[in-house]
Specification:
Structural class of chain B: mainly alpha
Order of helices and strands of chain B: HHHHHHHHHHHHHHEHHEEE
Helix content of chain B: 55-70%
Helix content of chain A: 55-70%
Oligomer: heterodimer
Distance between the termini of chain B: 28 Å
Number of strands of chain A: 0
Radius of gyration of chain B: 23 Å
Strand order of the largest sheet of chain B: 1-2
Number of strands of chain B: 4
Shape of chain B: globular
Order of helices and strands of chain A: HHHHHHHHHHH
Shape of chain A: elongated
Chain lengths: 336, 557
Amino acid sequence: MSEPSTAPEAAKKASAPPPAAHDHGHDDHGHDAHDPVHAANPHLAHHFDTPQQQFDAGKLGIWLFLLTEVLFFAGLFCAYTVYRSIHPEVFVYAHYFLDTKLGALNTCVLLISSLTAAWAVRNAQLAEKKALMLNIVITIACACTFMCVKYVEYAHKYHDGLLPGHNFQPKEQIWELKSFRDRHPEAAEYAEKLAKLDEKKAEPAAAGAAPAPGEAGKAEAGKAEAGKAEQLERPTEEQLEPLLAAGLVGPRSLDPSAHISRPRMAHVFFGIYFFMTGLHGFHVLIGIGIWIWMLVKAAKNQFGATYFGPIDFTALYWHLVDLIWIYLFPLLYLIH
Amino acid sequence: MASPTTTADAAIPQQKGADDNYLTHDKGFASWAFTLDHKRIGVMYLASVLTAFALGGVFALLIRTELWAPGRTIMEHDTYNQCFTLHGAIMVFLVIIPGIPAALGNIILPLQLGAKDVAFPKLNLASYYLWILGCVCMLTSLVTNAADTGWTFYAPYSTTTQTNVIPAAFGAFILGFSSIFTGLNFIVTIHKLRPPGMTFFRMPLFVWALYSTALIQVLATPVIGITLLMLIVERVFGLGIFDPALGGDPVLFQHFFWFYSHPAVYIMIVPAFGVVSEIIPVFSRKRLFGYQFIAISSLAIAFLGFLVWGHHMFTSGQSVLAGTIFSAITFLIAIPTAIKIFNWVSTMYKGRIHLDTPMLYALAFLWVFTIGGLTGIFLAVMGVDIHLHDTYFVVAHFHYVMMGGAITGFLGGLHYWFPKAFGKMYNEKTGQLGALIVFAGLNLTFFPQFILGSRGMPRRYYNYLPEFQGLHQLSTIGAFMLGIGFLITAVSLARALKSGKKAPNNPWGGATLEWTTVSPPPYYNFQTPPPVTAGPYDGYEDLVYDEKIGGYVGKKA
């Protein structure tokens, strides 16, 4: 919208310029060369009459663009809502696998970057080149920190088999997770016992299938004995409630010998998680790119009272990226 | 902002030499490929869209040839499925959606606003290249193993079929962004680049229509974008949002899809309303009747269009209450639409009607769009829709609207603004002949399909009962007639480009700002924003036809 230029800082008149003069000449780069408003404002594109008009157009444009971004993510939030209302237990189950501390760290990092982004706009308006560059650098640094933390989180997920769709093969059981144990120690203990019992039940059955028919009868008897010996006591509410909420036991299983499993659709949570945070991360990467571009423009001393639009618009975009994360963090990490 | 100039001064073009215009201003491939000039981008869009239209048309003819007789005629059933998918996807995403706004709108909108360019010229060029990229993706699907899902990409078939759905869906995703950028550009241009004196109610109705369209483009397209992205991820990783085998909900896909694609229907038709609103008063030599009603009704259609997506899903198992509400809101859309039709007809009443090619297309539009619109009301009735759902009745209905409405409007606009855009006149006789054959072919192709549908012929079927053959053959004959009509039109316009008479500045006697420039317009359109003191359809009485130059001039001149 404006052409890079090394011209001196623009004259500080934001509006009400004198009427355009009618000269017949114009150069080949699209500027009306002898028009005083354009001559005084090297960043004013040829099809705008005043810097104010150019700024207003850009502002309306960026707000419309942000609107499309909101709608773009809205589809995902909608899918999240539908899925969570159908399968609440999946979300309770899966959120134990997310690291709330890393999520909170990333929230802080993005909030700080939003502050520096807003500050940068003020710096640009006041033509404070050094402060502007510093604030942009901090913003970029925060964005990079965010991506690094995200990388750590993704690497954990990948390592633990917490992937969407057919690739969902968690290496850890939920009751082995610290996040679950800390919050529901009784439930974790009970689940562990239940799981062991399930294993024992399965072992003799597997062994019984292979040996000769004579031995099978013995194994059958042994299994029944073991079952009796290992019979658990009726669970208390503290033990059962979290397991019910996380879909580890079925809703009617007050029966202590119930099987333990995980929610059938648990993989969908990770599908939604990776999709939403991935798309958000993609926007952060784009943001980093734009901020670097802005840094270059700032280094060339292009911004001042009449031309600070690009910084303003980038900051607006950046606030939206931040805002989306503000929604993603509680929706994905802080489920109860 | 602007100096006190008179209209006459503003019309004096800013020129290098006497013949300098946007077509001759720069030369060479790069001057086109990297141009930021809205007119050149519009011309590139026009050429690309017309090429895609020819390709989509070939698929249409293949489909109709296959349906000449029951059973196999020229292709296998799988190929047939791919043909109708590509026909639909190309026509919707590559032709009709960008047709009027991006091609004609790009050339004309800034001229009608007295602006030098659109607000964001670089974004405009980016939009064009995204179109190219989207087109390449679609063609990738075409030449590898073309998608066979229908243009609607319904899950779970689209997530499980073996054909190459991903490039086609990704193509549509990219084309969505192309469309968003165009819409965003137009909204900002209309808000911020109007000349002094041009209030919202002094804007030409084509601008109003593009404004309403742009609102829909900006507000609806992101949703299809994310939906198609989810579809792609679902296919690649098994996301499990749409595929019931993975725990997903396929009806959710339909909700998302139609949340965009119903408003998208208005992206296709509202610009055509704008074109017709321009053509009818000019060729009736009479002030437009009910200007404000037409302007506001465009916005009303855009608004209501967002609330009716459920009428595509009466048979999907949604609740009767939801169906009733969607049905009732759909009926409401008939009101703003009828307002337009009545105002156009009232404009012609006691006018001096000139039956030039653009006017023929506008009249054809009135005829076919009224049929298309009214049959839409049949389909909005839930009980009737249960019978007609997924039959040829639906096919006939939307082809009357899309083909009969959008494409007729597009061709009308193309003939109306052709002399302005290219500075050449086409042969009026061949233009009229093309228009008449297209109109006849259109009705012959699609009217029998209403009868087929009401008798129970399902859409998208490869085979059919022998008693449907007669009507199918009529439809096929009509399709080839349409093809001939388009061919005549194409030849007529190509000849005009090559050896047409030089066009006068104002061949039809229009009073909107684009006719105050020379034909073709100068590189910067207007040296200063032309002040506007009257409405866009006032002042026909001040223009007189000049035999010598073959166009209209001001009375004083």
